Amino acid sequence: MRFWDASAIVPLVVDEPRSAAIDALIDEDSELLVWWGTPVEVVSALARREREGSLTAVETTQAIAALTELTDSWEEIVPSERIRRTATRLLRQHRLRAADSLQLAAALVAADDQPAHLDIVSLDSRLNEVARQEGFRVIEPG
């Protein structure tokens, strides 16, 4: 099982240059572990692309439907006081956005504060840098 950042979920629901590499990772290990807020972050990315014109309304609706199906098959790390405290620490120590600190905090909680035991799949270079500093092995497909 790997922890999946929202940035790596997007290519699962829309066709992108890295979609084939992401699909190959799913073929290796189909168990996805995500933060509770991941669906919101993915829809945010899809809506932004729709506003920018790189996705049509129909493509966005189809991607959201695919995301909804995907949510039935993954495991979520739910909000907790421990995640909030960890995210706050991460924000004080690293250059992260709030949502990224929550993602990484959820991964740390999932790894029981032993990040070497859980890989993170992410396409976000800033998050990846911090995840490595925290001790995670980061998989950057494609």
Question: Could you give a quick summary of the protein structure above?
Answer:
The protein is an alpha/beta fold and 142 residues long.
Q: Which properties best describe this structure?
A:
single chain; 142 residues; alpha/beta; Rossmann fold; 7 helices; 5 strands; globular
Describe the structure.
With 142 residues, this protein is of the alpha/beta class. The chain has one domain: Rossmann fold (3-Layer(aba) Sandwich). It has seven helices and five strands, in the order E-H-H-E-H-H-E-H-H-E-H-E. A five-stranded parallel sheet has the order 3-2-1-4-5. Helix 1 packs across helix 3, helix 3 runs antiparallel to helix 4 and helix 5 packs across helix 6. The two termini are 19 Å apart.
- Based on CA inertia axes, which overall geometry fits? globular
C-alpha end-to-end distance: 19 Å
Number of contiguous helices: 7
In what order do the strands lie side by side in the largest sheet? Answer: 3-2-1-4-5
SSE layout and pairing:
Blueprint lengths: L1 E3 L1 H8 L5 H10 L3 E4 L2 H15 L4 H15 L3 E3 L3 H13 L4 H13 L8 E3 L3 H9 L3 E3 L3
Parallel strand pairs: 1-2, 1-4, 2-3, 4-5
